[in-house]
Amino acid sequence: MKIKKSILAIMSLTIVFAFVGCKDKENLKSSLNTPDKINIYAEGNQKQITNLSVSSSKVNSNSVAIESKKIASTDKIVVIEDHALENIIRKAVSKPNGALFVSNLSNILELDGSKQNIKNLNGLENLINLKKLNLSDNQISDITPLKNLTNLKELILINDNIKNLNAITSLTKLEKLSIGNYRRGREYWNTFTDLTPLKNLSKLKELNLACSNVQLNGLRYLTSLENLNLYFNDSLSDINELSNLKNLRVLNISYTNVNNIKPLANLTKLTDLDIGNSKVTDISVLYKLTGLKKLTAWNIIKDKDYAALKKVLPNYDIIYKQK
C-alpha cells in the first residue's frame, strides 16, 4: 500500500491493525509521532493495517510514502488443552487472560502442578527453558509432551499413572527423577515396567522408583547415581544391574523380593542401606561395606548378627528390630 503526500513538519499518525489468524481477533491501536520511517510490530501472527489517518500542522504538497509489509515472527499462540494445566501456567506467567505465546512460556523455569487433577499435558512442550517440574498426584498417563523439555534438571511424577517412559529418553540434563508411587493399592501403580528409556540419563544422581512394578534393565548405565529408592517393589528380586553403580551412596530395597545382595559388594561409597523386610538371608556382604553409616534391616538380622557386625564395624548405626 502506498500513499504519497509531502510533509514539512512532524506528522502524527494513528494506525489501527488487526492480528490475522488470531483466535480472538484482537485489535491493537498505535499512535506515533515521528518524522522518520515507521516500523510496526507486535508479537505473534501476521499484521494487517486496517485504518490510517494522517494529520499535520503544515502540509505543502503531495509526497508522503508509507509502505506496509509482513514481519516474520517465530512467536505463536499456544493452546493448552487441559484447563487445570492452563491455570497453573497462567499463574506462572501472571497472565490470567488473553492469548498465551511461546515467548510467555519460555520464561518459566519452575512449575508446580501437583494435586491439580491434570490429565492432559499437550501444550506443555512449549516450556522449553523449564528446569524443574512437579506433576505429582494427578491423572496423567501420557507424558509424550515432556520430550521437548530438554533443559529439565528435576522431574517429579509421583502418584500418577504413567504408561511408559519413552519421553524421558531425551531429557539428558536430568539430575533428579521421581516416578514412584506412594498411594496404597496396586490399582494405582504405574503401568510401565521397562526402564531402558532411562539409560541415556548420564547426569542422573537421584532416582525414586518406590512402589513401582519394574525390573532394573538399563540401570547399569546410570553411573552418576547417588541415591536410589526401590522401596516396596514386590516384583523386584534381581539387583545385578546395580553392581556397576560405584557412586551410589543411598540405596533402599526394603519390602522387595530381593534375596541376594552380593551385587552390592563393590559399592564402597554406600553410606545408607535399607534392606528391611526383604528376602535377604545371606548378609556376609555387609562386612565389606565399610563406608556404611546407617543400616536398616528390619526382620533380616538377628541379635547375634547385630553383635558380630558391631564388633567388626563399630561405626554402623544398625536398625534391625521392627518397632
Automatic annotation (TrEMBL):
Q: Which organism is it from?
A: Clostridium estertheticum
Q: What InterPro entries does this protein's entry cite?
A: Leu-rich_rpt (IPR001611), Leu-rich_rpt_4 (IPR025875), SDS22/Internalin_LRR (IPR050836)
Task: List keywords of the entry alphabetically.
Answer: Leucine-rich repeat, Repeat, Signal
Q: Pfam families, alphabetically?
A: LRR_4
This chain's protein is named Leucine-rich repeat domain-containing protein
Give the signal peptide, or none. Answer: 1-20
Q: Which residues cross the membrane?
A: none
